[in-house]
Automatic annotation (TrEMBL):
One of its GO terms (molecular function) is ATP binding. It comes from Variovorax guangxiensis. Coiled coil: none annotated. It comes from the Bacteria. This is ABC transporter ATP-binding protein.
Length: 274
């Protein structure tokens, strides 16, 4: 087997150009010259300054956005339309408020034609795995922010996707709940390793969770400017690992690359607002 055939997701020489939101005559190249490969079972985080193009890349990998040029491959095959091998988790979870937690988790299975009884049984199993046994009848408004995230996680994982695409899934949570969720995701990931593309602002989170961290430049024409293998032992506790000397060393190395881009990103945001 060639090295390429071990890739779950490949973004090859991607470029994304948009019509400017402010002036339809202007074009804005958000992403250019970007190649990103995620191997089967690998956990890769992408960090970069605000507004640089992280979500754009994730949407390209999901098949929700066609790149202006470049190719996306899923398990070696060119992607056409939506990436059916991928599950997504976004910053704001999209639970249906009129459905109970159980009904939210089972909806994807029902779309696939799984019987209601079977879908409900699988939903209960996944609710238990994310620590929500007994909460299946609750509606989203009856759950805390952390619990809603768990439901969203169960909703994604019940479909057993081979690739997980996560766009700042825990950024809205308080620090303690966030660390609990991060550890839970790592446990679930360790039990059945899927390819993960994890987008985050938070360098600590990226290092604590990942096998590899990719740093993006500030826009326009965002592209990878650094790639770091995270050689910290697993299993990891995301809070404890932060005190490890190797963590601190990696953090310093990556921040040296990221810092200037973050400053450029802020400067551009100020210009946009001005
Ligand atoms: N549909 C679109 N039309 C026009 N411009 C867009 C569109 N989508 C994204 N952009 C622009 O492309 C750039 C990258 O956006 P994107 O949301 O991918 O960044 P991000 O790194 O995920 O941001 P954040 O860190 O703030 O979540 C931004 O300047 C954004 O305004």
């Amino acid at each position: 087997m060639s090295a390429e055939s071990h890739c779950a997701l490949e973004l090859l020489d991607i470029r994304c150009t948009f019509r400017s939101k402010d002036d339809a005559g202007q074009r804005y190249t958000a992403v250019a010259d970007t190649t990103l490969r995620i191997r089967e079972g690998e956990f890769v985080s992408v960090v970069g300054p605000t507004g640089c193009g992280k979500s754009t890349l994730l949407n390209v990998g999901a098949g929700l956005l066609a790149p202006s040029s470049g190719t996306v491959k899923v398990f070696g095959e060119p992607l056409v339309g939506i990436n059916a091998r991928a599950g997504y988790m976004f910053q704001t979870e999209a639970l249906m408020p009129w459905r109970s937690a159980r009904d939210n988790v089972m909806v994807g299975l029902q779309y696939r034609g799984v019987s209601d009884a079977e879908a409900a049984a699988q939903a209960e199993q996944w609710l238990a795995r994310v620590g929500l046994s007994g909460f299946g009848d609750r509606y989203p408004h009856q759950l805390s922010g952390g619990m809603r995230k768990r439901v969203a996680l169960a909703q994604t994982l019940v479909l057993e996707p081979d690739i997980l695409l996560m766009d700042e899934p825990f950024s809205a949570l308080d620090v303690q709940t966030r660390q609990l969720m991060e550890n839970e995701v790592l446990d679930l990931w360790a039990s059945k390793k899927r390819a993960v593309l994890f987008i985050t602002h938070d360098l600590d989170e990226a290092i604590a969770m990942s096998d590899r961290v990719v740093v993006l430049s500030a826009g326009p024409a965002t592209h990878p400017i650094g790639e770091f293998t995270i050689d910290l032992a697993r299993p990891r506790d995301v809070a404890e690992v932060r005190t490890h000397p190797r963590f601190v060393e990696l953090h310093t190395q990556i921040w040296n690359v990221l810092r200037d881009e973050v400053l450029k990103g802020y400067a551009q945001q100020r210009l946009k607002v001005a």
